[in-house]
Specification:
The complex is a heterotrimer. By secondary structure, chain A is of the alpha/beta class. Chain A is built from 13 helices and 10 strands. In chain A, strands 3, 4, 5, 6, 7, 8, 9 and 10 form an 8-stranded mixed sheet that branches. The radius of gyration of chain C is 22 Å and the shape is globular. In chain C, helix 8 packs antiparallel against helix 10 (140-151) and helix 18 runs antiparallel to helix 23 (389-398). The chains are: A alpha/beta, B mainly alpha, C mainly alpha. The complex binds sodium ion (NA) (2 copies).
């Protein structure tokens, strides 16, 4: 007869985020369609997005405790447990193409011996692919930045790890998030934010911070999909294959829509008074040169957890280099 | 006048001070939580001041605030329960007080026992987190390496103590209610 | 039993347990625990779920500032600033039946400008307004009811954390949402005032003897005296408002700035001894602990309901009923108000919007207008039993020595919930109330 799997899939972010939307709209339907081919197994999904079942940042523990079976593995939002997956935040000023970044990260994770194994062992979550990255991080602000000196004394909101990228520019980093950027910039608590186009434009941040300063921190890989190891080990090969196929479909659907959104967001921003500001390339290089090495603390934290932090970064750098992108500064050679 | 009695007075006596060794323990926990609130006020105001006038915000304030509120709440929970400040409805309890005082105590015995049992389950299941956070601080912290981090083990220990103290307080209340029920003529 | 049945049975049992006098937070935690245990058939998952909520439910900046808003309210009360303000208000409104009630509404509307959460308004005005109203002969029910009722203005008038959350979930401009809330907020204040005035005329037993006699015990205050009494509160509000709109701090940080300001004012007025300061701090702690423990329970309960599949079931039920757009919006409001009886504000939004939005998207419904409707409907839930957070905050802030029961507060707040429903209908019928300023 047919076997039924009861699985709970939940995320901390709501469905307006593409990485949640396609979990529901692409990943789950693809798993169902794949399994329907033989009809041996059927999944009975319980879905809860937007923190209704698991709060943002508690995903790892929810996986471990059996509260959720399928969900996001994100290093950005679970830095203590899945910090290995936020490696690109330690390598700022990388490629602006999110697909290229994701590919290189997944290559690096797969090729570095023990990387994913250590993560799986420690967290009890199996990385099944489905990697995604956010489009190029830049700075939206009330002021235009054509040279680094323009940033002096300007207060910028952002998540903790992004604020570290401002060191040496004279800009003042203030911890904040997309939830409060609009209001805080409007009242003047800070004058801009570090973020990405496909989130900033829907939040209409160009209304309060019209200058989109092209500082090109790069696209950032935020993670992939995971299944709790307890569940995964009970899956048949057919089910495992269906999940991996669905994860690949998820990545593709995510990027296709993100690309479209990127173009429409850019258009909407320019039509509504936002403008793109270019930073002088020589100034940009000086900034990168003066930045305190961003990989050191990250790699040390990964090594402390017993994960090959430095090796993963090197593999990532080399993979990109082989594909034609060279970091302006080799953080790892220092 | 009944209505006058309902007025919460500004000069109301301080919350009933618990007595006995356990009372002193939760009194100290409560006092630490109380001082922590002042600390929180100072922290946020310093961040505002540093950001606005010195161009130097304090790193990690969101993490510290999130850390603090959990600590404050659980340090004070047992004392809050003991002082009668934990929210409950008194519709039925008030009716019973007049009409069936013994039934009221029986009900309270059961309810407080339930509260104690539930908190004991939480404490039992919480303990592994305390151990893990102590043994593996590298996997149990708030914040981000390179920007700001704070280990979770001190918080987990405080929360664990708070949960245990609240469980004990529930069980003590249950025991008192049980004795009162026996003392009231049916 | 399937998930939806478990959810409905748990709601019935919760009603019984809460009214029987089990601590509300314990009732919520217990039912969530049993619910998950039944749903997943696993004791460990159910108990680990509790542990996770104990760790993460209140671990947030937004809850971190709760004690500071409470502290600000208590300091304002202890320093006699609240009393002074109300003496002036009593003087001004003394010819009006229910004048202090109207003064409370007005003061709340002003205070709404410095807070983004209704919990803060409820805590502050419980300390500031309730004792004064009772001293002037108002019934306890009315006094606490008007405070709980007008606390909702804190989230309807900008800044408002609920509007921010709605903006994030629907990708609408937070700035536009804030502006859209202004007229409905003012209309609600006016409806409250009219309601209080009418109750004074036609239902005086509900309000009490709060009329001219109390004010006439004392000779008239001179204008100078009135200004003198008002100065501290005006300074405090000016500092906080100036701080927020001058870009010095955020509405959430305003709790810390306001608490510090209130502390300085009370020291300057020499109304604060070490003993009373300590007492204020201890009560701040107890109120915070009580509110936050409720939030842990509420968070767990909504997680259990999400697992049960009830919200999705409700959504498909509404969709399958073949309603038109208007019908769906009405159904959404009804579902929100019903969920409001048992859940907290943010959970309701997170549970209902993802179901409603895809249905309403592309139908031309103005999502800003819908946001105002959703926020008003959700805020009604702050006042409705068995789970009404504004009512619980009033109760927690009154402290254990008060004889005012939870039931008194729910009863007192009920007329205000009805008036909110009336304003909800007004905004539904006249969308320009929300969109006129945009
Ligand atoms: Na407000
Ligand atoms: Na309610």
């Amino acid at each position: 007869g047919q076997e039924t799997l009861n699985l709970t899939v939940a995320t901390g972010h709501p469905e307006v985020f593409l990485w949640v939307k396609h979990l529901k709209e692409t990943f789950i339907p693809t798993v169902d369609a794949e399994l329907a081919k033989t009809g041996k197994t059927k999944v009975n999904w319980t879905q809860g997005y937007g923190g209704t079942i698991v709060k943002l940042g508690s995903e790892t523990e929810a996986f471990q405790q059996g509260i959720i079976d399928v969900g996001q593995m994100s290093g950005v939002f679970n830095p203590a447990t899945m910090g290995l997956l936020n490696l690109t935040y330690a390598m700022p000023f990388g490629p602006a193409d999110p697909r290229a970044v994701t590919e290189a990260v997944e290559d690096a994770l797969n090729k570095t011996e023990g990387a994913l194994a250590a993560l799986e062992e420690a967290t009890g979550v199996v990385y099944i692919g489905g990697g995604i990255a956010i489009d190029d991080y830049n700075i939206g602000s009330t002021k235009a930045f054509t040279k680094v000196a323009d940033m002096n004394g300007v207060k910028l909101g952002g998540a903790g790890p992004n604020l570290a990228w401002l060191a040496g520019t004279g800009a003042v980093g203030v911890q904040g998030s997309f939830v409060t950027f609009y209001n805080d910039i409007k009242t003047g608590v800070y004058d801009g934010y570090i973020g990405w186009m496909t989130a900033g434009v829907p939040a209409k941040l160009y209304e309060v911070a019209p200058n989109w300063n092209q500082v090109h921190f790069g696209a950032m890989y935020i993670g992939g999909l995971g299944v709790s190891k307890q569940q995964w080990d009970t899956f048949s090969d057919e089910v495992k294959a269906a999940f991996r196929t669905a994860a690949a479909a998820y990545t593709k659907a995510y990027f296709d829509e993100q690309d479209a959104r990127y173009e429409s967001s850019k258009k909407a921003m320019l039509e509504n008074g936002g403008k793109i500001v270019e930073l002088d390339p020589a100034e940009h290089s000086a900034w990168i040169k003066a930045l305190p090495n961003p990989t050191k603390a990250w790699a040390a934290a990964a090594e402390a957890r017993g994960e090959p932090g430095k090796k993963v970064l090197e593999a990532y750098r080399d993979d990109l280099k082989a594909k034609g992108f060279t970091f302006e500064r080799d953080y790892l050679a220092e | 006048m009944a209505e006058e009695a309902a007025i919460p007075r500004e000069d109301a006596p301080p919350p009933r001070m618990p007595s006995g060794p356990f009372g002193r323990v939760i009194g100290v926990m409560n006092a630490v939580g109380t001082l922590w609130i002042i600390g929180l006020m100072v922290l946020i105001n310093s961040d505002i001041f540093g950001r606005s006038f010195l161009h130097h915000p304090i790193a990690g304030v969101p993490e510290l605030v999130a850390f603090s509120i959990v600590g404050i709440v659980f340090l004070q929970l047992a004392h809050t329960l003991r002082s009668g400040s934990m929210t409950r409805s008194d519709v039925l309890l008030n009716v019973l007080e007049r009409r069936a005082p013994r039934a009221r105590f029986v009900l309270l015995t059961i309810f407080h026992l339930l509260g104690g049992a539930l908190m004991l389950i939480v404490a039992w299941k919480y303990w592994p987190s305390v151990v893990a956070a102590w043994q593996h601080p590298e996997r149990n912290f708030m914040g981000n390496p390179g920007f700001f981090t704070i280990p979770q083990w001190p918080l987990f220990i405080l929360v664990f103590l708070g949960i245990v103290a609240t469980a004990i307080q529930f069980l003590l209340l249950s025991w008192n209610d049980f004795n009162s029920a026996r003392g009231v003529r049916p | 039993m399937n998930g939806v049945e478990i959810a409905f049975v748990s709601i019935a049992i919760m009603l019984v347990l809460i009214y029987s006098g089990l601590h509300v937070a314990i009732a919520l935690i217990l039912l969530s625990f049993c619910g998950v245990w039944l749903l997943r058939g696993n004791f460990d998952i159910a108990s680990n779920m509790l542990v996770l909520a104990f760790k993460d439910a209140i671990s947030d900046y937004i809850f971190g500032v709760v004690p500071l808003f409470v502290l600000m309210g208590l300091l304002v009360a202890v320093a006699g600033i609240g009393r002074d303000t109300f003496e002036v208000a009593a003087q001004v409104f003394r010819r009006v039946l229910g004048g202090l009630g109207i003064a409370t509404v007005a003061a709340n509307a002003v205070f709404a400008a410095i807070t983004g959460i209704s919990i803060a308004s409820a805590a502050v005005f419980t300390k500031v307004a309730v004792p004064e109203m009772m001293r002037h002969g108002y019934t306890p029910r009315f006094a606490v009811g008007v405070v709980a009722g007008s606390s909702v203005l804190g989230m309807l008038l900008p800044p408002s954390l609920l509007f921010i959350l709605y903006g994030v979930l629907t990708e609408q401009s937070v700035g536009s949402l804030f502006i859209a809330g202004i007229i409905p907020g003012i209309v609600l204040s006016l409806v409250y005032c009219a309601g209080i005035f009418s109750m004074g005329r036609w239902w005086p037993s509900f309000i009490g003897t709060g009329k001219a006699e109390a004010a006439e015990e004392k000779p008239d205050m001179s204008v100078v005296e009135m200004l003198n009494k008002l100065a501290p509160i005006v300074i405090l509000i000016a500092v906080v408002l100036g701080g927020i709109y001058g870009g010095y701090f955020t509405p959430t940080e305003a709790g810390a700035a306001g608490a510090l300001g209130a502390l300085i004012v009370s020291l300057a007025k020499r109304r604060l001894s070490w003993a009373s300061f300590w007492q204020v701090l201890v009560q701040t702690g107890h109120t915070t602990s009580s509110i936050c423990f409720l939030i842990v329970g509420a968070s767990l309960y909504s997680r259990m309901l999400a697992m049960s599949g009830m919200p999705g079931w409700l959504g498909s039920w509404v969709v399958d009923s073949g309603l038109g757009i208007t019908g769906i919006i009405v159904a959404l409001m009804v579902v929100i108000i019903l969920l409001g009886t048992i859940l907290d504000s943010a959970s309701i939004m997170l549970l209902t919007l993802p179901i409603a939005l895809p249905i309403l998207n592309g139908t031309g419904v103005d999502l800003i207008w819908l946001g105002v409707l959703v926020v008003i409907a959700i805020e009604i839930g702050l006042l409705t039993p068995p789970f009404g957070i504004a009512v619980f905050v009033v109760k927690a802030t009154l402290g254990p020595d008060s004889k005012v029961t939870l039931n008194d507060i729910f009863a007192g707040a009920f007329p205000f919930a009805v008036m909110m429903a009336f304003v909800l209908i007004l905004v539904f019928l006249f969308p320009s109330l929300a969109t006129a300023l945009l």
